[in-house]
Design goal:
By secondary structure, the chain is of the alpha/beta class. The chain has a domain at 66-376: Trimethylamine methyltransferase-like (TIM Barrel, Alpha-Beta Barrel). It contains 17 helices and 18 strands. The protein has helices spanning 10-26, 34-42, 58-67, 114-125, 148-157, 173-182, 188-193, 211-223, 243-264, 291-306, 325-341, 360-376, 389-398, 405-414, 427-432, 438-452, 460-471, and strands at residues 30-31, 71-75, 81-86, 91-93, 100-102, 109-111, 133-134, 164-166, 197-201, 208-209, 227-229, 234-235, 270-272, 277-278, 312-314, 345-347, 351-352, 357-359. The longest helix is centred in the middle third of the chain and has 22 residues, at 243-264. The radius of gyration is 24 Å and the shape is globular.
Length: 507
């Protein structure tokens, strides 16, 4: 048996979905992208009396839900299966909307550059419990903004073979990025057959899809790239302050995106996602780690699971400014909720400050949090301990079970051992080792992991073509930023920390 959450009754789920479908049919959605809007009209969808909004009849929405895949496989750079997105499989992935980096060497929070991003990608490549990468933060400080989305993707593709969650910054950004991804497949057909990336499509809110989101969705779906539909549902500001009302608004946004995707290409992989937040009535901020936002996350995931759809959510993050008690509490609680809810793609590790700031030490800490959460939601079943008479006899004979055959056989899988970023020593040992704080331990772990990174090789022709695609989009900048070379790691000792028992990724 797998631990799960139960946050909505079947009756309430049905009522929420019925109401969302009614809104879609009667109020509809403003589709500002000319090309996508025309595709919908050509499909037979009508507009409201003012001709402004596209109406989505319930039968069209239901047909789209039926045609959307229940799950799909993400493949790595080499075309090997990497992650199954669906069911109760849980995969943690860094957040993907940062503007700044919290420099772990100086403590400064500043605009990020390409060197910061390369260090992030190298660190993330070795994270045991971070399933795949994301283009986690912008590097506009040293690259022109109109190609910065492709530049981030380039740095991921040449640093790690893991799949990547990304997105385009402009209305026409997907085409360039798709060409880059296709360089690692024989042709477009193989890219569709073996998807290498998930692209984020942001629902604009206020019952509209903007020009960028519309064109990005159209381009991704036609290229066979899976998309996650991510409304930023702000409870109390542009969505009802109550949970059920917010869920209706959220479902309207996601079901619109899903329906449009299926109209463009039936069978297109779509994740039922979101990045909800509450509106803080005193601070006028939008906390994504608020408990109400987390409740909304797991509730819409429950609705998606009732429809048998893959899911995404912004969780395992913090609105705090540093790796402190607030960051730890918000991250662990939401990461565990995500695991219990069975969120397929959990966006958030490494993120601080309303997903505006990325922190490498927090990513290291979050890797441990995610590992523990995945360990918690493993299937629970007897493992040689029913009946227990032999264990009772072992204890009565030796006064302990440390050397029991059952213990020796099972403890490596049953007892999760953390990295030193989590302190599990007694006070005396902690003091002997330097009395290091959590931040100190996390910063040390960042540097140690970076020193162990081994650069992957990229075919020179592919590398050159990716750079050409990016350079063709430059306007005034003449060259791409220079990237630091990886340091060749020293040979590992056979009994190193990474070989300890209990270290594995669970899904």
């Amino acid at each position: 048996m797998r631990p799960t959450l139960n946050v909505l009754s079947d009756k309430l789920i049905e009522e929420i979905l019925d109401e969302a479908k009614r809104i879609l049919a009667e109020v509809g959605m403003e589709i500002r992208g000319t090309n996508l809007r025309q595709r919908l009209i050509d499909h037979g969808l009508k507009t409201d009396k003012d001709g402004k909004r596209i109406l989505f009849p319930a039968d069209v929405v239901e047909a789209a839900i039926a045609s959307a895949p229940k799950s799909f496989t993400l493949y790595d750079r080499d075309g090997e299966p990497h992650a199954e997105i669906g069911g109760y499989n849980v995969h943690y992935v860094p957040g993907s909307s940062g503007l700044k980096i919290q420099d772990h060497r100086t403590g400064e929070t500043r605009l990020s550059n390409s060197t910061d991003f390369i260090e992030y990608a190298r660190l993330c490549d070795g994270m045991e419990h971070i399933a795949y990468l994301a283009t986690a933060f912008s590097t506009n400080k040293d690259i022109e903004s109109q190609v910065s989305d492709a530049w981030r993707l380039y740095m991921c593709l040449t640093t790690s073979k893991k799949p990547v969650v990304t997105g385009a910054f402009t209305e026409h950004g997907v085409e360039r990025m798709t060409h880059m991804l296709q360089l690692f497949r024989k042709d477009r057909a193989e890219l569709i057959e073996k998807p290498y990336s998930i692209f984020t499509i942001t629902a604009t809110g206020n019952f509209r899809y903007g020009e960028d989101s519309c064109q990005n969705l159209l381009d991704c779906v036609e290229a066979g790239i899976p998309v996650e539909i991510v409304p930023v549902t702000l409870m109390g500001l542009i969505a009802p302050v109550t949970l059920v009302g917010a869920l209706v608004f959220h479902c309207v946004d996601v079901l619109t995106g899903l329906t449009m995707a299926q109209i463009v290409r039936p069978g297109a992989p779509v994740l039922f996602g979101g990045a909800p937040a509450t509106f803080h009535m005193k601070a006028a901020s939008s906390p994504m780690a608020a408990i109400e936002a987390q409740h909304l996350n797991v509730a819409y995931v429950a609705i998606a699971k009732s429809l048998d759809l893959p899911t995404q959510a912004y969780m395992a993050l913090s609105d705090g400014k540093f790796l402190d008690a607030q960051a730890g509490g918000e991250t662990f609680s939401s990461a565990l909720l995500a695991a219990l809810a069975g969120v397929n793609s959990v966006s958030g590790p490494g993120m601080l400050d309303f997903v505006l700031t990325f922190s490498l030490p927090k990513l290291v800490f979050d890797n441990e949090v995610c590992g523990q959460c995945l360990h918690f939601v493993r299937n629970l079943e007897p493992i040689g301990d029913l009946p227990t008479r032999k264990l009772v006899d072992d204890l009565m004979r030796d006064n302990h079970l440390i050397t029991s055959e059952h213990t020796l056989e099972n403890w490596p899988a049953e007892l999760y051992l953390t990295d030193p970023v989590i302190d599990r020593t007694n006070r005396e040992t902690w003091e002997e080792q330097g009395s290091m704080s959590l931040t100190d331990r996390a910063c040390t772990e960042v540097e140690e992991r970076l020193s162990r990174y081994a650069q992957i090789q990229t075919d020179s022709a592919i590398d050159k073509e990716m750079q050409r695609l990016i350079k063709d989009g430059l306007e005034s900048q003449e060259t791409l930023p220079e990237l630091p070379e990886a340091v060749t790691p020293e040979p590992r000792r056979k009994a190193g920390r990474r070989g300890r028992a209990g270290r594995r990724r669970a899904t």
